[in-house]
Amino acid sequence: MIQSINRAMQIIETLSQNEKEQWLASELAEETGLPISTVYRITQSLIQHGLVTQIEATKHYELGYKWMELGLKMFEKLDVRDVTRPVLERLALEVEETVYLNLPRGFHSIIIERIDSPRNVKILDSIGERIPLHIGGANKSILANMPHKEVEEILERLVPVKLEREEFKKELASVKQKGYGISYGEKTKGTIAIGSPVFDFDGRVVGAISIEVLAYDITDERMRFFIEKVYEAAQQISSELSGAQLG
Amino acid sequence: MIQSINRAMQIIETLSQNEKEQWLASELAEETGLPISTVYRITQSLIQHGLVTQIEATKHYELGYKWMELGLKMFEKLDVRDVTRPVLERLALEVEETVYLNLPRGFHSIIIERIDSPRNVKILDSIGERIPLHIGGANKSILANMPHKEVEEILERLVPVKLEREEFKKELASVKQKGYGISYGEKTKGTIAIGSPVFDFDGRVVGAISIEVLAYDITDERMRFFIEKVYEAAQQISSELSGAQLG
DNA sequence: AGAATCTATTCCGCATTGTGGAATGAAAGC
DNA sequence: GCTTTCATTCCACAATGCGGAATAGATTCT
């Protein structure tokens, strides 16, 4: 709605693209389609606020410290994380695969915690990464346990075709009933993700933990093992979040 | 320079204040001195970009997910952190106090990692917190090892009185020579911080690790012990960052 | 060394954008 | 049912931000 803010965010988003770390004013202008004088004026303003940094020597622009400052501040406040970490760590050891904690934010979930697989072959999605809520085992188990009204709103945006949406809601019902969701190569081809929801003391979903494994060496038995472990871990976290004392 | 961006950041900074988590539009207007219609227009725009979230039910505003998304993304890129963590963890066990890793950003340093003291009495500064570069043992050991030109620029801003500045530079020279910096209650009254610099493969300071202890139960002997341990840990991290293989 | 070709950075007249006071609407308290 | 307290919308006005073009500075080519 406010032009300068939109444009500022265009520049910020460009700077945050993974492919490239350093951008020149001219490159930013090219990428965003904005006049270079405009890019210049806006970056100056953003620099004032710490949202963008300019490397003096090379004139390159980068994201500024403010993102880390406020991002970490928000991050620290999440006490779900503190409870989750030890459980996830044990889970990672038991299953020998990479495990994740995701929390929903709007139409996406954010990867909040990741414990890497102790094995050599790792599948690594980054902490901070955002994944649309209809993609992946973890997210499906989040959606499956959200209030219907919210789910409707989210799906209308993410799944435009009505028929698909109805299909998807049937899947969610099953995910809710079973207590876990599975995705086959939805986010990353060749991998399977198993997610299970985490609830707070009010019984509301606050997020989901998940395990991501390579599809090629999966057997039925291993699958059952993973599901059981992930489900147990999610249950334990939920219990701890609701204040119960488990042995 | 750009009014709407300045105002947007005023609102963001207000939202990020620790005292209060949730703000109404009217409260934001009061706090920032902006007309309420302006607050409204700007927050709407910020919501579009995920910089601010509005709790539907209560109309309260909070910081949006974008800060976490980009903040964590930047955070993940810091490989100093990966190298540092295990060393810091061992250090925390050995000294039984809270230890920190700080990285400089502009005129401040940011707390990037914290390993809590295993003891009951903890001194806890938050991850993400920003501390002016002339405050504290860690920051002094960073400043002491920066290029003179940069130090001059930073000190002109942080220490306005010329005489004090000259005094401070003498202290920095000593910190550089000794390899560690000490501060007595500079950031938190009643505590002592001992910091030691961390260097990359080029021999440039990338940050500092530090230990923060309560002043009242400190003896000369303990002090020597802490200094030695912090110094050793910093050395080890620097070696690892420069690619050397230590036993 | 001088010309040519880049970029970053600044300038400034113009009009689009953002402004903010006031009106509306909706909800809570008396 | 009247008053207060908010959020939200409206709109005439002009300040703010716009962007093409000029400048300055750096680098490469002849």
Automatic annotation (TrEMBL), chains A, B:
GO molecular function, one term: DNA-binding transcription factor activity
Lineage: Bacteria, Bacillati, Bacillota, Bacilli, Bacillales
Name this polypeptide is given: HTH-type transcriptional regulator KipR
Domain called IclR-ED: residue spans: 66-243
Keyword field: DNA-binding, Transcription, Transcription regulation
Domain HTH iclR-type stretches: 2-65
Keyword Ligase in record: no
Gene: kipR_2
PROSITE patterns: HTH_ICLR (PS51077), ICLR_ED (PS51078)
Xref: SUPFAM superfamilies: GAF domain-like, Winged helix' DNA-binding domain
The keyword DNA-binding appears for this protein: yes
SMART domains: HTH_ICLR
One protein family per Pfam: IclR_C
Cross-referenced InterPro entries: GAF-like_dom_sf (IPR029016), HTH_MetabolicPath_Reg (IPR050707), Tscrpt_reg_IclR_C (IPR014757), Tscrpt_reg_IclR_N (IPR005471), WH-like_DNA-bd_sf (IPR036388), WH_DNA-bd_sf (IPR036390)
GO biological process: negative regulation of DNA-templated transcription
